[in-house]
Amino acid sequence: MLQYLVKRLLFAVPTLLAVLTVVFFIARILPGDPAQVILGEQASAEAIQALRLRLGLERPLIQQYAGFMAGALTGDWGSSMVTGRPVLGEVLNVIPYTIELTAASVILGAIIGIPLGVWSALHRNRLIDYVTRIGSLLGLSFPAFVMAIMLLLVFAIQLSWFPVISSGGSGSLGVRLQHLALPAINLGIIMAAYITRVTRSSMLEVLGEDYIRTAHAKGVPALAVVWRHSLRNALIPVVTVVGLYLGILIGNSVLTEIVFNRPGLGKLIVGALTQRDYTMLQGLMVVYTFVIVVVNLLTDLTYGMIDPRVKYQ
Amino acid sequence: MSKRIVTAALLAGAATLALGSFAGQAWAEKKVLNYGMATKDVGRLDPHMTATTPDKALLQMIFSGLVRFKPGTISPELIEPDLAEKWTSSADGKEWTFNLRKGVKCHDGNEFTSADVVYSLKRAADSKTSQFASDYKDFDKVEAPDASTVKVTLKNPIPSLLGMVANLHGGNMVCMKAAEAAGENFKLKPIGTGPFVFKEYKPQQSVTLVANPDYFRGRPKLDTIEYKFIESDASRDLAFAAGELDLIYGKQDETWVERTKKVKGAVVAVIEPGELSSIYLNIKHEILKDIRVRKAIAHAIDRKAMVQLKGASTAREAKSIVPIGYLGYAEDVPLLPYDPEKSKALLKEAGYPNGFTLKVIHTNLSGMLPTMQAWQAMLKKVGINLEIDVVEHATFHAQIRKDLSPIVHYAAARFPVADIYLTQFFHSRSIVNTPTAVTNFTHCDQADAEIDAARVEPDPAKAKALWRTAQVKLMDAVCAVPSHEQLSVFGYHDDFVLGYDLKGSLSLGPMITEQSHFK
Description:
By secondary structure, chain A is mostly helical. Helices cover 78% and strands 0% of the residues of chain A. Chain A has two domains: 2-74, no CATH class; 95-306, MetI-like fold (Orthogonal Bundle), CATH 1.10.3720.
C-alpha cells in the first residue's frame, strides 16, 4: 500500500514538470505584457522597458525558464509580478476557502444525489423517475452564476437569512457556516445533479444482475438488497465521477466565488491570467496539478474501500 | 411563496423591501463605512506605483499632497493648501517655494517635515520607484532650506506645476523613514499623513482603514472604512440594497442609474472627469491617409445616437479631441457634423464608391465592445465595413501599441490639463511602436510645436491660445473622431454625508474626508 502511494506520487513528478514547462511557455507566448499592466495605460514605452528589465523579462527565455524551474523545485515561488506579494502566501491565504467550499458542495451533492439516484432507479420509468431526471438535467444545464443570483435574491434579499457578501466570515463556526451556505448550495446543486444521474444509471445496471435476483429469491429483505448488494456495487462509477468533477469544481468555482464575493483559487487564477501575472500563474499551476494528482489518488484509494477486490500494487 | 419568488426576481422591488428591514438596525450612531469597489483585489498600494482606479480611490484617503484638489472638484484652478500652508513662485515660474504646515504627523508617529517632501518628490521622479517619473523630468532641484520650507527649481516653467504636487499620482507625499525602512515592502504597508491609516489587507476581500487621530485637519468623524473588493456588479448592487454596503462604485449605464435610484434612500452621484471616447485614425494607413476618407468616417458618426445608447445620465456628446472642462479645452472648434450623405459623397470622391473593408482590433471588455459595435453599424450605413477582431483586454493593449490596428477606440480621462491629453495622444514623441511611445495611434504630428510651446508658456492666456491652435490643427487633419464622454457613477445611502459637494474626483472615486459621517 505504502509502496503504491510512493509510486503514484513519484509518477506525479514528471507530470508536474511537464505542466510547468507548458504553462511557462504558453504564458509568454500570449500577447500582453505584465509590465504594461503594472504601469497602466499611460505608461511610456521607456518606462515599460525599464520595468521589464527589473522584472527579468528581458533575459533570454531559456535563462528565465531555468531560474523558474530552479525556484519551483526549491520551493521559492517568487512574488506576484503585479502586487509584489509572495505567491505562496497569496495561495495559502485562499486555499482554506477553496477547500471549505469544495468539500461542502461535494458533501451536499452526495447527500442529495445518492439517495435521489437510488430512488429514481428503483422507480424506473415512473413519475418520480421522470421528475428526478428532469430536475437533474435542469441542475446541470442551469448556469451557476444565474442560480447564484437567484439564491441571493431569495435568501439574502427577500428572506435576509444569509449575507450577500459571503466573504468567508472570520468569526464563530456559526458565522462561517452562514457565509458558506449559499455558495455551497449553489455548487452543491450542480454536484447533486451529476451524482443523481450517475447513481441512477449505475444502479439500474446493478439491479439487473443475476445476484440481485438471487438475493431477492432467497428472501433477503428489500432494503438490504438495495443498500448492501446494489448500492455498494454501483458506487464505483459514482466515485469516479465525483473525483473527476472535483478537479473541475476547484477551477470552475470562479463564478460562484465572484458572485458571492468569496476568496478562492478560481478568482486568483483568473486575476493572474488577465493581468499576465506570470509568477502567480506558474505558482497556481503547481497547486492545481498537485490537487488533481491528489484527488485522483484519493479516488483510487476509495475504490479499495468500497470494493475489497481492488488491490494496490 | 410563488408570489414571493416572482417579486424577488424584480431586483428593484426586492431591494426596497430589504432596505426597509435593515434601516432599523443601522440607525444607532454608525462609525464604519462599508465601501464597495468594483475590483478583484487591489494592486500595489504605493501611490507612486499605481494608476488604477481601485488603488487610487483608496490611497487618496491615506496620503496628502502639498496642495490638494478641493474635495469634490477636479479643476486645477480650485487647488487649495494641503500639507503646504502657502506657496510662492518666481516671476519666470522656475522657482517655487512651499511653506509647510507645522506639527503634521505621519501615520508611524514621526513628524512630517521638508525632508519628507524632498524624499517624496525625488522618489516620484525616479523611474525605479515611480511610474510617473517622466512627469517630473523638468524638475531640476528639490531642496529643504529648513524643516518647514521646500524649494523646487525647474528647468522649464510648468504652468500646471501645482497639479504635480497635489494629492494625485506622484504628488502624494510619502513618509521618508517609513518608506526607507520598508523599501520594496512599502506597497504592502503604505504610510502617509492622510485622514485614514492603513490597518489591514485581506486578499480578495478588503482593506481596512482606521481614523488617523492626529490628522492635521482634526480626527475623522468615521472610525473605520472597510474598503471591499466586489467584482460582480450584481452582487455589489444587491449588497447595497441589503444595506451591507453604504457606498458603491456604479455601472456607467442608464439602467444602473434608474435601478439604483429606486432603492429607498439611495443617492446616485454622477462625477467628473468624463472619459472621452474617440476613434483614433492612423493617418499613415494606405486607405486612411486620404483625408477625404477620414472626413467620411467623421461624418458617419452620430454623436447624439451614441449618447442615447450610453444613457443621458452618464454620457454626453464630445466637443473636442480634448475632454470637456480640461484647462485649455477649446469648446468653440466645430466638429464635423453627422451627415451620412456627405460621407458617401466623400468616399466616392476618394475612389471608394462601394466603400471598403478594414480590419480592426478591439477588446472584449463589456464597457468598450458595444461602443465599437455601434460605430461599426454607423460606418456600415455609408459602406465602410469594419471587421472587428475581438481579443482579450491585455492582448488589445499590447497589439494596439504595436500599431496593428488602423482604427483604435480608446476611452480615457487624464489630468485635466490639455497638455497631457494632447501630448499622449497626438504628439509625435508618443507615436506607438517607437521607444518613446505612449498612445499616439494616429501618427499625427501637426501640432507638436504648439503642444511643446504651450507646456512652457508662463502666460495662461497665451498657453490656452496655443492649445486651441493645436486642437484646430489636429481636428482639421481629422486625426481622431471624438464621439462621447462617460462620467463615473457612485451610489450611496442618504444617511451618509460626504461633507462636501461631490462633483468630481481625479482619483475617480469619492474622497472620504475627516468630515464624512453618518447622520
